[in-house]
Structure formats: structure tokens, C-alpha cells
Amino acid sequence: MMDNRDVLTHVRINRAAYITYWIQAFNERFPNRYDESYMYSMGEKGFGYITDLETAVEAYPLHNNLLGNCIPLEQLVEQEGVETGMLFLAAQLWRQTLLEVGESTLTLTLFKQMNARIDYFETVMCQNYWNQSISQMKDNASAITKHHDDRISLVGKMAASMAHEIRNPMTSIKGFLKLLRSTITSNNYERAEAYLDFIDDECDHILMQVTGFLSFSKKPIMDEAKDLISAKQVLDHILSLLNPRLINENVDLTLTISANLMLNVQKMAIQQVLSNLLNNGIDALSKLKSDKKIHIAVMEDNFHTYIRVSNNGPSIPSKMNDVIFNPFVTDKENGTGLGLAICKQIMLKNDGDISFTSNEKETSFLLAFRKNIDSD
């Protein structure tokens, strides 16, 4: 009868039989998962670890590598596509292999020693998996917290921007309502009608701002329908609202329209775009002492209708070129950075786009609306 040392030698001599059985058992569970050479290499390393009873299990680098494979657990799981359950099954199959192939020769003492090495491997693997899971949960919790904070910050910026855009027209409406009360008392209805026109215009301005924010939010609620309207009609309405500011800021505005061009767009939304561009232009011109000019040109080609809004104010800094249409990007001291981002969203919703050029002499924003060309 062979002693344990002789039995262990016999087991090592028959390593090919053990490895072959283990591979066959694995492939029955996961057919064609890995190629033959890879499986045999893993089988050799697993067999070597299990039968190397002279070396203490603590001496194997299992905390960082699996079965001497020199592949960290997290890399083996993530990059090699090895599922954690598959690793446990591979370890379990080594027990089955020892019992089946070594049934007639393997002693109970040697089986217990080899089984203890498999147990140790599973313990290390569980610990590594647990540590990795805890780390991932902490990362996820941190990401969720940051995402929540970002959303709160975004809501705050949106609210501040909305308040900024609506405060002025609401102040005007309140003032005109006071004047309206006094004129009604004195039966001066002609002046009262003028005040009502101002109030109506300011309400339109607020509605444009709300439309812009809804467009920026990408929500379908209250989405405005498209209408076929003339470009001149849209511009006339915007200029009537901005005329007091143009006069107050001493800005010379000129308008060129090559023909009675039509736009199939969301009227209120496009008015918001033009209002933003013109107000931005007036803001830029505030840095000039005189000769403040804004020019609006409407033109077309075979595929697009264009509206160009230009001013002779300072150039836009080159660092803004690639980010100017991103949310919360602005070079204004009190700007919110939402105006141009809203313009971009609105133009995309209206089958168009917005671009700009800027130099020391002129800054121009170009609105391009695609025409509906029949395929005929």
C-alpha cells in the first residue's frame, strides 16, 4: 500500500488525466466558452496550486491573482468576461475531478489537504469580490450624491435665470397697471388703450421666455405648433418690443430683407431666439461710447432661409468658440449662460441651426432654416 507521498507522486504523474477531466466537466457547463489552449493553461495552473502541498497556501499570491494566472480578480471578471459564478463552479469542479479521477488511489488525508486549498481559494475570491462590491457601492453612492447636487445646482441656476428674465417685464406690467387705474378714473381711455398695448407686449415677452425654457428642458408639454409666417412679421413684432431699449441705448438698427420670405416655424419660440440675440447685441454694444450698430439681414438660397443678426461691438473671446452654446457658459458678469443654449435647442427643434463668427469689427449670429424641398 502506497503512503501519502507515493500517492501524491502518482497523482502528479497523471496530471493530464486530471486536467482533461476538469476541462471536460467545465465545457459541459459552458460549451465553447474558451479555446482549448486557454483552458489547458488554466487547468495546469489550477492543478499545480491544488497539488503543491509542500507550499503553504498563504505563499500563493491569491489576494491579487487567481491560481497563479497572474490576472487580478477584477481584471479577470471585467476584462476577460469571466463571471464570478463561473469561478466558483471551476473550483467546485476540481473537487469533482479529484473524487472521480483519483477515486481508486487518492487517500482521504490527501483529499482533505487538497480540498482545504480549494476552500482557501474560494475564501480569498469571496473576500476580493466583497471588497470590490463595497468599493463599487461607495463609488455609486458618491456618484449619486454628486448627481443629486448637480441637479439641485441646475434647478437653482434655472430658477435664477427665469427670475432674471421675468422680473423686468413684471415690473413694467405692474407700473402700467397703476397708470391704467389712474387713466380709467379720469376717463382717459385713449391713453388707457396704449397702456394695455404695453402690458400685452410685456406678457408676450414673458411667454417667450417661458417657451424658451420649455424648449431647453426638452419636455413635450406645451410644445408650440409650427406655422407658416413671414420673417418680416416676426422681426416687426420683436423690434416693437425692443424699440424702447434701442432708443435708450442709442443703437442704430437697420433691416434688410431680400424678399417677403416665409418661415415654417414655432413663432413664439423663434421670437425668443431673435429677442435673445438682439438683447445680447445691445449688451455687447454697451461697451462702446458711440456709433453703436446692429444690422439684421434676411436672405435665402435653394435650401435655406437665413436671418443674420450682426453688431459692431467687441469680439467674442476665442476661448468661447467651442462652448458658447453649452448651458451656463457666459462671459457676462451677471449672465446666466442659458440664452444661447436655449437658442440652440429651439433652432434644432425648428429644423434649423445657429452659428456665429466674431472678429474685432463685427460679431454675427446666423440662423439657418431648412426649406421643405419636395423630392420631385
Automatic annotation (TrEMBL):
EC number: 2.7.13.3
Protein name as catalogued: histidine kinase
Alphabetical keyword list: ATP-binding, Kinase, Nucleotide-binding, Phosphoprotein, Transferase, Two-component regulatory system
Catalytic activity: ATP + protein L-histidine = ADP + protein N-phospho-L-histidine
InterPro entries recorded: HATPase_C_sf, HATPase_dom, His_kinase_dom, HisK_dim/P_dom, HisK_dim/P_sf, Sensor_HK_Regulatory, Sig_transdc_His_kin-like_C
Record keyword Oxidoreductase present: no
Matches recorded under PROSITE patterns: HIS_KIN (PS50109)
Molecular function via GO: kinase activity
Signal sequence residues: none
Keyword Cytoplasm: no
Source organism (scientific name): Paenibacillus agricola
